[in-house]
TrEMBL record:
<keyword id="KW-0472">Membrane</keyword>
<dbReference type="InterPro" id="IPR000068">
    <property type="entry name" value="GPCR_3_Ca_sens_rcpt-rel"/>
</dbReference>
<keyword id="KW-1133">Transmembrane helix</keyword>
<keyword id="KW-0812">Transmembrane</keyword>
<dbReference type="InterPro" id="IPR011500">
    <property type="entry name" value="GPCR_3_9-Cys_dom"/>
</dbReference>
<dbReference type="Pfam" id="PF07562">
    <property type="entry name" value="NCD3G"/>
</dbReference>
<dbReference type="InterPro" id="IPR028082">
    <property type="entry name" value="Peripla_BP_I"/>
</dbReference>
<dbReference type="InterPro" id="IPR038550">
    <property type="entry name" value="GPCR_3_9-Cys_sf"/>
</dbReference>
<dbReference type="InterPro" id="IPR001828">
    <property type="entry name" value="ANF_lig-bd_rcpt"/>
</dbReference>
<dbReference type="Pfam" id="PF01094">
    <property type="entry name" value="ANF_receptor"/>
</dbReference>
<feature type="domain" description="GPCR family 3 nine cysteines">
    <location>
        <begin position="223"/>
        <end position="261"/>
    </location>
</feature>
<feature type="domain" description="Receptor ligand binding region">
    <location>
        <begin position="18"/>
        <end position="180"/>
    </location>
</feature>
<protein>
    <submittedName>
        <fullName>Extracellular calcium-sensing receptor-like</fullName>
    </submittedName>
</protein>
Length: 264
Protein backbone atom coordinates (compact mmCIF):
# COMPACT_ATOMS: atom_id res chain seq x y z
CA UNK A 1 0.00 0.00 0.00
CA UNK A 2 1.07 3.60 -0.48
CA UNK A 3 1.41 6.08 2.36
CA UNK A 4 -1.85 7.79 1.34
CA UNK A 5 -3.93 4.58 1.39
CA UNK A 6 -2.40 3.61 4.70
CA UNK A 7 -3.45 6.98 6.12
CA UNK A 8 -7.03 6.49 4.92
CA UNK A 9 -7.28 3.27 6.93
CA UNK A 10 -7.40 5.41 10.06
CA UNK A 11 -10.47 7.33 8.95
CA UNK A 12 -12.84 6.36 6.19
CA UNK A 13 -12.59 2.61 6.74
CA UNK A 14 -13.89 2.62 10.32
CA UNK A 15 -16.74 0.24 9.51
CA UNK A 16 -14.77 -2.03 7.19
CA UNK A 17 -13.44 -5.43 8.06
CA UNK A 18 -9.81 -4.66 8.80
CA UNK A 19 -8.83 -8.30 8.40
CA UNK A 20 -8.47 -7.67 4.68
CA UNK A 21 -5.51 -5.38 5.51
CA UNK A 22 -3.81 -7.85 7.85
CA UNK A 23 -0.17 -8.25 6.90
CA UNK A 24 -0.20 -5.32 4.47
CA UNK A 25 3.13 -3.61 3.80
CA UNK A 26 3.18 0.12 3.22
CA UNK A 27 5.60 2.98 2.71
CA UNK A 28 4.59 5.52 5.36
CA UNK A 29 5.92 9.01 5.93
CA UNK A 30 8.60 8.73 8.60
CA UNK A 31 7.59 9.41 12.18
CA UNK A 32 8.71 8.57 15.68
CA UNK A 33 7.25 8.86 19.16
CA UNK A 34 7.22 12.41 20.49
CA UNK A 35 7.37 12.70 24.26
CA UNK A 36 4.20 14.17 25.78
CA UNK A 37 2.07 13.85 22.63
CA UNK A 38 -0.29 11.20 24.01
CA UNK A 39 -0.67 13.18 27.23
CA UNK A 40 -1.51 16.25 25.17
CA UNK A 41 -4.25 14.38 23.29
CA UNK A 42 -5.70 13.19 26.58
CA UNK A 43 -6.18 16.79 27.74
CA UNK A 44 -7.93 18.06 24.60
CA UNK A 45 -11.53 19.10 25.17
CA UNK A 46 -13.41 21.25 22.61
CA UNK A 47 -15.84 22.40 25.31
CA UNK A 48 -13.04 24.23 27.11
CA UNK A 49 -12.50 26.42 24.07
CA UNK A 50 -15.76 26.78 22.13
CA UNK A 51 -14.05 29.06 19.61
CA UNK A 52 -11.99 26.20 18.18
CA UNK A 53 -14.23 25.06 15.35
CA UNK A 54 -11.68 22.52 14.11
CA UNK A 55 -11.76 20.54 17.35
CA UNK A 56 -15.54 20.56 17.32
CA UNK A 57 -15.58 19.09 13.81
CA UNK A 58 -13.14 16.37 14.89
CA UNK A 59 -15.40 15.51 17.84
CA UNK A 60 -18.55 15.40 15.72
CA UNK A 61 -17.02 13.08 13.14
CA UNK A 62 -15.15 10.83 15.57
CA UNK A 63 -17.91 10.42 18.14
CA UNK A 64 -20.91 10.79 15.79
CA UNK A 65 -22.33 13.59 17.91
CA UNK A 66 -23.17 17.27 17.45
CA UNK A 67 -22.64 20.59 19.19
CA UNK A 68 -25.53 23.06 19.44
CA UNK A 69 -25.11 25.80 16.84
CA UNK A 70 -26.89 29.15 17.26
CA UNK A 71 -29.33 29.90 14.45
CA UNK A 72 -29.47 26.31 13.20
CA UNK A 73 -32.21 23.77 13.80
CA UNK A 74 -31.21 21.26 16.46
CA UNK A 75 -30.13 17.94 14.97
CA UNK A 76 -31.67 14.72 16.25
CA UNK A 77 -28.37 13.17 17.30
CA UNK A 78 -26.62 12.73 20.58
CA UNK A 79 -24.92 15.75 22.05
CA UNK A 80 -21.15 15.98 22.31
CA UNK A 81 -20.02 16.06 25.93
CA UNK A 82 -16.84 16.71 27.85
CA UNK A 83 -16.81 13.06 28.95
CA UNK A 84 -15.83 11.90 25.48
CA UNK A 85 -12.12 11.13 25.27
CA UNK A 86 -10.03 10.50 22.18
CA UNK A 87 -8.24 7.63 23.91
CA UNK A 88 -11.57 5.76 24.20
CA UNK A 89 -12.07 5.64 20.43
CA UNK A 90 -11.24 2.40 18.58
CA UNK A 91 -7.96 2.32 16.71
CA UNK A 92 -9.48 2.58 13.21
CA UNK A 93 -11.29 5.77 14.24
CA UNK A 94 -8.42 7.62 15.89
CA UNK A 95 -4.80 6.74 16.60
CA UNK A 96 -3.04 8.16 19.64
CA UNK A 97 0.31 7.97 17.85
CA UNK A 98 1.59 10.91 15.83
CA UNK A 99 1.21 10.17 12.13
CA UNK A 100 3.94 10.78 9.60
CA UNK A 101 2.07 13.76 8.18
CA UNK A 102 1.77 15.37 11.61
CA UNK A 103 5.41 14.59 12.40
CA UNK A 104 6.47 16.41 9.23
CA UNK A 105 4.44 19.47 10.26
CA UNK A 106 5.88 19.22 13.77
CA UNK A 107 9.44 19.39 12.40
CA UNK A 108 8.51 22.17 9.96
CA UNK A 109 7.17 24.36 12.77
CA UNK A 110 10.34 23.88 14.82
CA UNK A 111 12.47 24.60 11.75
CA UNK A 112 10.73 27.95 11.32
CA UNK A 113 11.11 28.63 15.06
CA UNK A 114 14.87 28.01 14.86
CA UNK A 115 15.12 30.23 11.79
CA UNK A 116 13.24 33.00 13.58
CA UNK A 117 15.57 32.65 16.54
CA UNK A 118 18.63 32.96 14.28
CA UNK A 119 17.13 35.98 12.53
CA UNK A 120 16.23 37.59 15.82
CA UNK A 121 19.70 37.09 17.25
CA UNK A 122 21.34 38.48 14.11
CA UNK A 123 19.03 41.49 14.06
CA UNK A 124 19.49 42.06 17.78
CA UNK A 125 23.26 42.05 17.38
CA UNK A 126 23.19 44.51 14.47
CA UNK A 127 20.66 46.84 16.05
CA UNK A 128 22.48 46.81 19.35
CA UNK A 129 25.74 47.93 17.77
CA UNK A 130 24.12 50.58 15.55
CA UNK A 131 20.81 51.86 16.88
CA UNK A 132 20.51 50.09 20.23
CA UNK A 133 17.17 48.84 19.05
CA UNK A 134 15.86 45.25 18.68
CA UNK A 135 14.61 43.73 15.44
CA UNK A 136 11.00 44.55 14.56
CA UNK A 137 9.73 40.94 14.17
CA UNK A 138 6.00 41.85 13.74
CA UNK A 139 6.84 43.40 10.34
CA UNK A 140 8.86 40.38 9.23
CA UNK A 141 8.19 39.13 5.69
CA UNK A 142 8.17 35.36 5.06
CA UNK A 143 10.79 35.57 2.31
CA UNK A 144 13.25 37.00 4.82
CA UNK A 145 13.42 33.57 6.49
CA UNK A 146 14.54 31.69 3.37
CA UNK A 147 18.27 32.18 3.88
CA UNK A 148 17.98 31.20 7.54
CA UNK A 149 16.17 27.95 6.69
CA UNK A 150 18.95 26.87 4.31
CA UNK A 151 21.31 24.44 6.00
CA UNK A 152 19.54 24.62 9.35
CA UNK A 153 20.20 21.65 11.65
CA UNK A 154 18.90 20.78 15.11
CA UNK A 155 17.77 17.87 17.27
CA UNK A 156 14.02 17.76 17.93
CA UNK A 157 12.41 16.67 21.19
CA UNK A 158 12.18 13.09 19.88
CA UNK A 159 15.96 12.94 19.69
CA UNK A 160 16.13 12.94 15.88
CA UNK A 161 18.26 15.28 13.82
CA UNK A 162 16.33 17.59 11.52
CA UNK A 163 18.33 18.98 8.62
CA UNK A 164 17.41 21.25 5.70
CA UNK A 165 19.74 21.34 2.71
CA UNK A 166 21.10 24.42 0.95
CA UNK A 167 17.75 24.82 -0.84
CA UNK A 168 15.80 24.72 2.41
CA UNK A 169 14.45 21.24 1.63
CA UNK A 170 14.10 18.50 4.22
CA UNK A 171 15.77 15.21 3.39
CA UNK A 172 12.99 12.71 2.76
CA UNK A 173 12.59 9.13 3.84
CA UNK A 174 9.96 6.48 4.53
CA UNK A 175 9.19 3.90 7.17
CA UNK A 176 8.21 0.47 5.91
CA UNK A 177 5.27 -0.57 8.06
CA UNK A 178 3.57 -3.92 8.57
CA UNK A 179 -0.12 -3.63 9.53
CA UNK A 180 -1.26 -6.30 12.00
CA UNK A 181 -4.99 -6.50 12.75
CA UNK A 182 -6.84 -8.24 15.58
CA UNK A 183 -10.38 -9.70 15.89
CA UNK A 184 -11.49 -6.89 18.25
CA UNK A 185 -11.03 -4.36 15.38
CA UNK A 186 -7.81 -3.00 16.81
CA UNK A 187 -4.55 -2.94 14.91
CA UNK A 188 -0.87 -2.31 15.37
CA UNK A 189 1.65 -0.77 13.01
CA UNK A 190 5.05 -2.43 13.23
CA UNK A 191 8.06 -0.85 11.56
CA UNK A 192 9.87 -3.55 9.61
CA UNK A 193 12.26 -1.37 7.65
CA UNK A 194 13.03 2.04 6.23
CA UNK A 195 14.10 3.90 3.14
CA UNK A 196 16.85 6.32 4.09
CA UNK A 197 18.05 8.55 1.27
CA UNK A 198 21.02 9.67 3.39
CA UNK A 199 22.36 6.12 3.73
CA UNK A 200 25.38 4.92 1.70
CA UNK A 201 24.66 3.84 -1.86
CA UNK A 202 23.15 0.37 -1.99
CA UNK A 203 21.91 0.53 1.61
CA UNK A 204 19.08 3.02 1.19
CA UNK A 205 16.44 0.29 1.57
CA UNK A 206 16.45 -1.91 4.67
CA UNK A 207 13.78 -4.55 5.40
CA UNK A 208 13.66 -6.99 8.30
CA UNK A 209 12.03 -9.92 6.50
CA UNK A 210 12.03 -12.11 9.63
CA UNK A 211 9.71 -9.76 11.56
CA UNK A 212 7.07 -9.37 8.83
CA UNK A 213 3.67 -10.92 9.60
CA UNK A 214 1.94 -12.08 6.40
CA UNK A 215 -1.74 -12.61 5.74
CA UNK A 216 -2.86 -16.19 6.29
CA UNK A 217 -3.76 -16.63 2.61
CA UNK A 218 -0.06 -16.55 1.76
CA UNK A 219 1.67 -19.89 2.21
CA UNK A 220 5.10 -18.23 1.77
CA UNK A 221 6.15 -21.12 -0.50
CA UNK A 222 7.69 -20.18 -3.84
CA UNK A 223 5.33 -21.10 -6.69
CA UNK A 224 6.38 -23.61 -9.32
CA UNK A 225 6.55 -21.91 -12.70
CA UNK A 226 6.11 -25.11 -14.70
CA UNK A 227 3.31 -27.46 -15.64
CA UNK A 228 5.29 -30.70 -15.33
CA UNK A 229 8.47 -32.17 -13.87
CA UNK A 230 11.86 -31.37 -15.42
CA UNK A 231 13.26 -33.57 -18.16
CA UNK A 232 15.87 -36.12 -17.14
CA UNK A 233 19.23 -36.91 -18.69
CA UNK A 234 18.99 -38.08 -22.29
CA UNK A 235 15.89 -36.02 -23.12
CA UNK A 236 15.05 -32.44 -23.97
CA UNK A 237 12.08 -30.08 -23.65
CA UNK A 238 9.70 -29.82 -26.58
CA UNK A 239 6.96 -27.23 -26.31
CA UNK A 240 3.34 -28.31 -26.57
CA UNK A 241 1.51 -26.35 -29.25
CA UNK A 242 -1.46 -24.40 -27.85
CA UNK A 243 -0.30 -24.65 -24.21
CA UNK A 244 1.59 -22.22 -22.02
CA UNK A 245 5.32 -21.86 -22.60
CA UNK A 246 6.10 -23.70 -19.35
CA UNK A 247 4.31 -26.85 -20.54
CA UNK A 248 6.39 -29.26 -22.56
CA UNK A 249 7.02 -32.87 -23.43
CA UNK A 250 10.27 -34.71 -22.69
CA UNK A 251 11.52 -36.34 -25.89
CA UNK A 252 14.71 -38.36 -26.46
CA UNK A 253 17.70 -36.40 -27.65
CA UNK A 254 18.39 -36.54 -31.44
CA UNK A 255 21.06 -38.89 -32.70
CA UNK A 256 24.51 -37.50 -31.97
CA UNK A 257 23.24 -35.19 -29.20
CA UNK A 258 23.36 -35.75 -25.42
CA UNK A 259 21.89 -34.16 -22.30
CA UNK A 260 23.85 -34.88 -19.14
CA UNK A 261 21.71 -32.95 -16.66
CA UNK A 262 18.09 -32.66 -15.62
CA UNK A 263 15.91 -29.90 -17.06
CA UNK A 264 17.78 -29.75 -20.40
Amino acid sequence: MTAQIDFIVSGFLINWDLQMFHGAISFTVHSTEVAGFKEFLQTINPLSDYRDGFLQEVWEQAFDCSFPKPGLQEMHSRQCTGEMKLEDLPGPAFEMEMTGQSYSIYNAVYSVAHALQDLYMLGFSRKTTTMRKKTDLPNLQSWQLHSFLQGISFNNSAGERVFLNEKGEATGGFDITNLITFPNRSFQRVKVGKMDLKAPKGKELLIGEDVIVWHTVFNQVLPLSRCNDPCFCGSWKKGIEGNQFCCYDCVPCPEGKISNQNGG
